[in-house]
Every structure is written in C-alpha cells, then in structure tokens.
Protein: VanZ family protein
Amino acid sequence: MKKLLLYWLPVLLWMGIIFYASSQPYEKQDLRPTLSTHLDLEIVENLFSSITFYYAGDEISIQALGAAHFLEFFIRKGAHFLTYLVLGFLIHRALSYHFLNNRLTFIISWLLTICYAISDEIHQSFTPNRSPHLEDVLIDAAGGIIGISLAWLIYKKIRTKRI
Structure:
C-alpha cells in the first residue's frame, strides 16, 4: 500500500492542481497587470513587433494583443507544456512500477496524459471566460511525451545500473 501511494499520490495531486487551475476564470489568472508592472514592455515591443501568427483562429501579435498579452500568451503555452511534461513523467513513473514492458508503459502513459489533457480542455469549457482549444491539447501532448521520454531514460539508466 505504501508503494502504491508513493507512486500514484503524486499523479493524483498533480492532476488535482491542474483541475484547480482550470477551474479558475481567466480574470484570476491574468498576468498582464503583473507583467506591465515589472517589465519594460517597450523592449518586448521592439524585439517582437514583427512576429504575427495565428493560434486557434486568433491573431497573435503585439499589434493585435498588446505587449503584455503577447508575452502572457507564451507564458501560458509554456505552462501548458511544462505542466503536462510533469504529468507525463509522473504517470510513467507510476506505471513503470506496475509494468515491466517499457513500450507498453510508454504508450499507456502518453494515452493517459492525452486523455487528461482532453478532459482538462472540456472542463475549461465550463469555466467562465475560458475556452477549450485543440491546439492546447497538442501542446500538452508534446509536453507529456517529453516528460515520459525523460522518465523512460532515467528509469532505464537506473535499471541498467542495478544489473
């Protein structure tokens, strides 16, 4: 029972943190006031004013969003990536305790990570001023596969040392 808690409790706690974050309306997570207060946004404007692209049908540029919102976009997407990198790592860690087959553990870990990312986006659709995006699931899946790969490499190295 201790081993079960040791491996699965971090997964469940991390999922809870993700769920809590998705439950908050955008206004509670708005980084623009903090960025505007603590950064010289003129530098951001000078460096990145020529960048324009589309994400989920919206233009992402300094001209369309302003410097603070433009910067916040990248912080939020980086947070998606890192959050699911950790989740993928933790899921792989927990599953590798149960399965010896590395390929099966890898695949199931990634599928569980993607399923949670999808459920998180669906959950966001019920949160005020939040919207689900397939593109976010793709970022989450990319973070997840990197985290799973890191866990696989680390545990492979640990198992190799034991032999």
Q: What stands out?
A: DSSP finds eight helices and two strands in the chain. The radius of gyration is 19 Å.
